[in-house]
Amino acid sequence: MEVKFRAATICKMEIDEGEAFSILCQALGMDFVMDEDTEFIIKPEIQDGYIEKCVYVIKNGRETKYDDRGRLFIALRNVAVCLCPNCYFRGDSYINQVEQIHEDE
Q1: The predicted structure's pLDDT at residue 98
Q2: Contacts of 23 (CB under 8 A, 6+ apart)
Q3: Would 15 disulfide with which of 19, 35, 90, 97, CB 3.0-4.6 Å?
Q4: pLDDT for residue 100
């Protein structure tokens, strides 16, 4: 006997932008983006011959590498600033930074 079953289910939830952003950060494994109790800095590192930006955390006056996705961290912090203009980290120097690319001529 062959049984064919097809179901289409749509689930709709009303969530605000802040909750959606929180879910995104959790899905990316970067829920520390909104951590208010931690001081983060971005430092360049050479990885496989390329300069990458890494996230460092400062605890007890010491810098410790936290994550190697610094560019994603910066982008998510920029989104957070747009969603919540009164973010405590609004003035951090790596927020809204503009990078210039110099090409050799």
Answers
A1: 63
A2: 15
A3: 19
A4: 52
Q: What is the mean pLDDT of residues 30-38?
A: 87
Question: Can you tell me which residue has the tokens 């990316």?
Answer: 28
Strand segments, DSSP code E, in the chain are 39-47, 50-59, 62-67
Q: For the range 41-47, what are the long-range contacts, defined as Cβ-Cβ under 8 Å and sequence gap of 24 or more?
A: 41/94, 42/70, 42/73, 42/74, 42/94, 43/70
Q: pLDDT (tens digit, 9 = 90+) per residue, 73-84?
A: 999 999 998 888
In angstroms, the Cα distances linking 102 to 45, 97, 105 are 19, 16, 9
The residues that bridge with 6 in the sheet, in sequence order, are: none
- Residue 56, beta-bridge partner list: 41, 65
Residue found under tokens 């300069």: 51
Distance between CA 58 and CA 40 in Å, rounded?
6
Provide the pLDDT for residue 92: 87
CB 81 within 8 A of CB 90: yes
